[in-house]
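Suppose a colleague, Dr. K., hands you the sequence of a protein chain of 510 amino acids and asks what its three-dimensional shape might be. Before reaching for any lab equipment, you can write down a predicted structure in token form. Begin with the sequence itself:
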Amino acid sequence: MKEQYGHSRTQSGLPLLPYADTTPPSTPFVPSFRTRTPPIPHRRKSLLVLCAFVSVVSLGVLASFAVHSSRSIPVAPVAQAPPAQDVLDSPVNASFPYLHDDDIVALPDTAEYPPWVNGPPTQRFRDNLRNDTQYITSWLSAGWNNDVMTYMNLIYLGIITDRVPVVAMFTPSHIGGDAGVITFGEVFDVQRFRDESGTPLLEWLEVKDPESEEVDELGCWNIWEAVQYYEHFPRGSSIPDWLKLDISYTRAPDWVKQIPGYEHDKCSTFWSLARLAYPEDREPNLGNILPSPQHGVFLDPDEHMLCYDYLYYACAGHMSEYDSSYAPEWRYVGKYMHWTEEIQTIAAQYVNRVFGLPEDGPVPPYISIHVRHGDFSTWCWDAETPEDCFAPLPVIARRVREVQDEILQRKGIYIPMSRVIMTSDEKDEEWWKEVVAQGWVRMDHDALQTEQRYTRWHPVILDAAIQSAGLGFVGTDRSTFSVLSRRRVLDWNDGAVRMVLWGRKGADDH
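The predicted structure, expressed as tokens, is then:
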């Protein structure tokens, strides 16, 4: 069902910036940095609707009085209307003392919360769940990009089980615990996702008051123990602590694992997980419950708020399917998860800044590169020497030229080497000097003081946004960060993409 809450979205592309070494394109490229026409503020709309409603009611009362003037009608004194701001702040369905109760047939829907909850966030989450709606949730326990995939998997599982997905915040497992959390809606445009995908979606902060000190008990499925054989407990996450949830876990059956008995694959399939949402397969697999850590309660998996400990390893066919065009978690979810307008605006400013262009000007077509080194060095088993593991810059440059050629051939747009942005976790300054020697520009968040200007979260989020807005992309094979950027450039921009192989000398020779 198409979700009706919120405002419709309009998009306008940024004009192509002309420069001397660009062949005029046959079709203009519109970067995925989008703007939209600002909607009428919700409170202002509420006031306009309310005023119109009061006017209609008043006319009705006068007409009734004229028709029945021969009767003696006792009229109760009408209270003075409260100030406009009080009206605006009144919750939906609140009684307005300046209207007769008998005159109110139905109040206009001025709710500032989604239709899948009872009202504003409550102290206990169950108080805000609708009796006619079912929900699904899960927790995070990886690096940021893997956590993004985890939420995509959760939302897709909600689609196939006819449940409303409830996503929590992102936790700073990869940037230092003292960095604090960032909400899903601070990164991704939730309303745009609802509008364009037609899929319902809630954030936990829309269900339960983030400031609540009430601890809710909840029964969940423990998937982690069923898909791997080294940790004999549910997957740990700090999300339940942030949400003040006390979880009692039930171990899932072994058949949720895609390849039972195979230790090198941790994949559980979406449809095997979905079976646990329905009574035919839920009831026979109850029992084997762990007590909750705070209250020591033993709870079966909840039927109203269906819950799984960890869904990163959920898949339709195989673990690396985000690389594949068929991947349903991308087709039905991921491609609709666009950055917030704030993230897009900052990313556009950063792109222009590194190109030496006015920050508030149009963004030119560009190619982005993501080179992942860092912890990947521990996967260099086939490399005889450390320097043999990663593809050298001339090899990456060959991939960039392939992208340039494809863009020129398909779109008639020539992107010079001076419009190529390198993003990487590499710390070696000599390597970065070689990057500059290629004619490329560096996205240097230390020099740009990104953490000081924004938050510790912003360097990694902005890199992803910048990569996704290019007309071309060259990524690192087996990096989930590159995998998602590749998919965004393909589906959002109809761009040209390549992935660089690595792990041994000459891995990307072709």
